[in-house]
Amino acid sequence: MFEQGRRMSATGKNPFQHIVEPLDPKNSNQQFFNLLNLGDPRYERLPFSIRVLLESAVRNCDEFLVKQSDVESILNWKQTQTQTVEVPFRPARVILQDFTGVPAVVDFAAMRDAVKKLGGDPEKINPVCPADLVIDHSIQVDFNRKSDSLQKNQDLEFERNKERFQFLKWGSKAFKNMRIIPPGSGIVHQVNLEYLARVVFNYNGFFYPDSLVGTDSHTTMIDGLGVLGWGVGGIEAEAVMLGQPISMVLPEVVGYKLHGTPDKLITSTDIVLTVTKHLRQVGVVGKFVEFFGPGVSQLSIADRATIANMCPEYGATAAFFPVDNISIQYLEQTGREREKLDYITKYLKAVAMFRDYNDAAQDPDYTQVVELDLSSVVPCCSGPKRPQDRIPVSDMKKDFETCLGAKQGFKGFQVAPERHAAVVPFHFGGKEYILSHGSVVIAAITSCTNTSNPSVMLGAGLLAKKAIECGLSVKPYIKTSLSPGSGVVTYYLKESGVMDYLSQLGFEVVGYGCMTCIGNSGPLPDPVVEAITQGDLVAAGVLSGNRNFEGRVHPNTRANYLASPPLVIAYAIAGTVRIDFEKEPIGENLSIICPHPHFPAHSSVYFVGVTKFHTSPSVYALYDTHVHTLIIMICSDVIQSSGFIFSRSSLGLSDSLTPREFNSYGSRRGNDAIMARGTFANIRLFNKFLNKQAPQTVYLPTGETLDVFDAAERYQQSGIPLLVLAGKEYGSGSSRDWAAKGPFLLGIKAVLAESYERIHRSNLVGMGVIPLEYLPGDTADSLGLTGRERYTLVIPEPLTPRMVVDVKLDTGRTFKVRMRFDTDVELTYFHHGGILNYMIRKMSQN
């Protein structure tokens, strides 16, 4: 059991001590802060998610880190939501996965050394709130299609990551309040749902809502169970672990009303892809989304978790489903004790946080309300390069063929018309096959998004059964895989009798982890890679994941589509995405869609160092090296990949290592030298200096084309600080902590973008990198910026949050930008050169 470590505010110093009362009058030792005793009518008009923030502020109020004025700001949410009001939030716990957990433990160890050198007590560097680290990002699909694939992949995982795992084991013993969930347990978010979630904490004599932040963007999946949580940067999570509250701008809350009944052929995947596109259009970046309406009561916790999981893809901070009776039923099904279920229900009802979705009288006030009629949802996929680009399945063939010839971009590959019908023959396993544009070469049932949902997983199994009975198969060169979110999935697939059919189609269990969804898809067969390269083909991957940015899934699949597990099976059998399932047979005389009865009612099966800026007024000349002036999204997976290490030379790897031993960028995050070299090393990086995809840039002093790292190293040797020019949604995707740490190590002092992904902007601040944002209407193109100018950023004193400052060019022009330090706390971090420097100095002083 965890040691809480932090001092409870309810020690007489808390000004809200008077609202404390026992949950059970017969047991005065178990108490709670009864928010209804505030006697404030505003409370029950607050969105349920904001009530969680309020409870945390009330319980932790000490007039130092959390003040009574903060409580009033949250209570007055209806007015303060649009006033950029900053409030502190102390989540109950932190969750990490190993890609971000290893750097966190490395940082903690390094901070102990730094504090010791400064004369402080290194033992103070220790988590003071519970932290769980789930190892799920290391395993790769090296072996597939064989019954021993799981064991072989796990053996290789331990062989590759022995030092990492030993280090994490040391960390679990060296630091208090840190628990390590070992490899093979499952995907972090499904483990969180099934095992780690408390829903209501019962600790040190107090009941309070479970809440968390996590170092994985899809931490929001837990929102589906009614636990408020969201992803933060690894650097920010470390501060929370050290007892710092999160400083956040009180968010607007979009109420998302679900009503109507889904068609029997619709899956939760279809619903979430529809919601993702809709909310992207609405615009919910930096906001909470809270689901309500009678349609919610039709969704299982697995369905809700699927929708909450893809919250980062539609841009919101959190996607909250308040607890209801279905939530309690799920907790019972997953083995929570009856005593816990009783106090969870009693506590949430006592503080008006228990929901009846069919009772409109409980509907709170929202910033705005948007609606979705579930009956309007149609079967769909998303792609080929972004999760928000939804495509009805009936339009997939037409959409892909349009993308082939369209201009290079999110919906274009710019393939010449005369090459659209190109085919490349190749031999595999003694037989000849043909690849063409749109050929499926990866089909993966993977990811926390869908493998946690029994309806779509059993649906895929039933589809496989029907396919085998009809004599269908998947071509042997297609890399098929099944990586469930936990062992529970394998259990019910076997017990239901469908696992054998999945195996016969090539969908053997290959591991329990994120795998293909995070780019750990492993190598493709050499003949397939050669055919793709020879024909410069736009090959396809189809996966039941949540991310499909180009270069993420696999370097040789330029088109990647997110789909439900049944559709993954269907496209694997078809062997191409250039098929219209409504008009073309998947096999001779075979129908395509075969609905069947199973839970929930709406689901179906488709058939077939520390550098510090001065605090005094200062001017910094920022010289550009790798400038991105594209008016598009540059995702953090491109800034700092988590998948394949593509080459030996750029990373300085030993000649004695084989490519299989390179491991992935994500698993190398404890090695700053490799990660610095891997920054902007993604082969799908599009640099406008070069006007092509390559992990390279122009070294301006000589005009040479160099790898980004090599150019940055030359600039640093010359003492020239660097600037990145970028487009919209800069930093979307994963790998975010190192997507900020890597640029920092390359000498990048600022980024100028049209907009930022929320967590990535926070991580830049955490590393002391200045996030600048164009003013509305301005872009690199509209200002005529080429990236070859010399940039001087004038930093006035005193700085204030979201201040507008001048940027001067060596051409004589000046334009204004906004500094995206959104809170006073972020400015404090900046003045210290980053959050870790701030924490080290604070701990040393204490």
UniProtKB/TrEMBL annotation:
GO biological process: tricarboxylic acid metabolic process
Entry-linked InterPro entries: Acnase/IPM_dHydase_lsu_aba_1/3, Acoase/IPM_deHydtase_lsu_aba, Aconitase/3IPM_dehydase_swvl, Aconitase/IRP2, Aconitase_4Fe-4S_BS, Aconitase_4Fe-4S_dom, AconitaseA/IPMdHydase_ssu_swvl
Superkingdom field: Eukaryota
Catalytic activity annotation: citrate = D-threo-isocitrate
GO terms, molecular function: 4 iron, 4 sulfur cluster binding; aconitate hydratase activity; iron-responsive element binding; metal ion binding
Pfam families: Aconitase (PF00330), Aconitase_C (PF00694)
Keywords (A to Z) from UniProt: 4Fe-4S, Iron, Iron-sulfur, Lyase, Metal-binding
EC number: 4.2.1.3
Cofactor: [4Fe-4S] cluster
UniProt cross-references to PROSITE patterns, sorted A to Z: ACONITASE_1 (PS00450), ACONITASE_2 (PS01244)
CDD domains recorded: AcnA_IRP
Domain Aconitase A/isopropylmalate dehydratase small subunit swivel: 657-774
Annotated ranges, domain Aconitase/3-isopropylmalate dehydratase large subunit alpha/beta/alpha: 77-575
Family assignment from sequence similarity: Belongs to the aconitase/IPM isomerase family.
Descriptive protein name: Cytoplasmic aconitate hydratase
Gene: ACO1
